[in-house]
Amino acid sequence: MTITVESPTTTTAFADEWARWHDAREDNLRDPLGWLSLAGLHWLTDSPQRFDGLPGTWWVTEERVFITAQPADRLDVDGERIGGVQIVTPVEGAPGVHVLNEEKVYEVIRRSGQFAVRVHDPAAPTLSGFTGVTAYPADPRWVVTGHFTAFDQPRTVTTGAVVDGLEHHHRAAGTIEFRIGDSRETLLAFGTPEDLRVLFTDATSGVTTYAAARSLAVGAVETDGTVTLDFNRAVNLPCAFTVFATCPVAPTENRLRVAIEAGEQDPKL
């Protein structure tokens, strides 16, 4: 890591800017129907099933999800109340189809060819008990410059998930090389050169930070090929907060040897 001398004014301004970003991040996590509202994850089969606390009957046939309900169940899709059978078709790996039930949302998702209903409840304990995200103190020394090298063609990189048997498929645009202290590191970068992000682990993972991965938004590549990695803004994946998420783990190429003592820490520690 290159160490530069920061004036007190510069350091204070940096900390203030990070604090505003961190406050906005926590406000986003307080979304009544966001990740902290998850209160259930029910995997579907080709046999009609009923789940505790979930109105209707749910099953999968020919890669489509069937829902049987009566008007009294108060299940709505696209503004229409289900009174009989409703068919929805979620897209693999994408945000799910929303089935509304008064203040709750049942999100029908598809992951690795499997289908599930994810329950969003504004009264979920993870949301009502949320008091913020613990993070390392902001430090300008953890802002480093990297160099992006694009692949000739984007590649599909497959990673595992925090749920056994699931996979995630990522569009990898290239690699980012950078130096931390005496260590030269390389990360696979997902997305496009206009909007890159990385999933990584490091020597703090499973110790002070979440074990599966943290995510860092990198943004756009400069005209000279450089990018800025501000590890102070490394964030937890949803699965760090709830067992009802299906997040990816970091690719093997992105397991850093150094300890990145910056960014969000494991909320369960």
UniProtKB/TrEMBL annotation:
Pfam family, one: DUF1684
Name recorded for this polypeptide: DUF1684 domain-containing protein
Organism: Nocardia lasii
Lineage: Bacteria, Bacillati, Actinomycetota, Actinomycetes, Mycobacteriales
